[in-house]
Amino acid sequence: MVYHHHLIGVYILMFAFTLFFLEITWAITLFLRVCIRNETSRVLGCWSVVLWLDTWKKSLIYWAAAAVILLRPHRLWLTSVSGGLLIGLGVFHLLLLYKKKLEAKEALLEAKEDSYDRYEDEMDSAVPEGVNTHTDSDTASTHDYILQV
Fold first, then answer.
1. In this structure, is residue 38 part of a structural domain?
2. Which of 55, 80, 103, 146 suits a disulfide with 97, CB 3.0-4.6 Å?
3. Distance CA 82, CA 101 (A)
4. What is the count of structural domains for the chain?
């Protein structure tokens, strides 16, 4: 489309590069964290601006790009296919967000269950023999001795 001087072709090409960049941010983040050990680095500070575009924000960007492609149809069938794929990609990013929320909920529930199990284990353990040898009669005789003196 760019070769035939269509304006939508330039838009599709520019967004393809943007889409590629947004989809490989996880790899760039991994590379930066391995190479830069200082958490207060300026590079990581600037990169956090890119990481601000998380799952639901990427979905909005992809849907806006798909709307532009689908609202201005062209004779080439690839434009409608690419618009549909962008809508699907946005849906997958929302599903990823839903999955992350479910995993966070499960982690909280597991942590909560573990904290209650800790007390049951302490209550169930038997006291070893010979550890607590004092009885009420022993303390009573000690108090009687103190009172007699």
1. yes
2. 55
3. 29
4. 1
Report pTM.
Answer: 0.64
The DSSP output letter for 147 is H
DSSP 26-86: HHHHHHHHHH---TT-HHHHHHHHHHTS-HHHHHHHHHHHHHHHHHS--SSHHHHHHHHHH
3-state secondary structure (DSSP) of residue 41: coil
Q: Is residue 26 part of a domain?
A: yes
Alpha carbon distances (Å) from 27 to 20, 44, 115: 12, 14, 36
pLDDT single digits (tens) 56-81:
899 999 999 999 888 876 677 778 88
Token reading at 73: 């149809």
DSSP 54: -
Is 137 contained in some domain?
no
Give yes or no for a contact between 20 and 9, defined as CB atoms under 8 angstroms apart: no
pLDDT tens column, 6-48: 777 888 889 999 999 999 999 999 999 888 888 788 888 888 8
* Full domain range(s) for residue 84: 7-118
Closest C-alpha to 94, from 66, 69, 57? 57
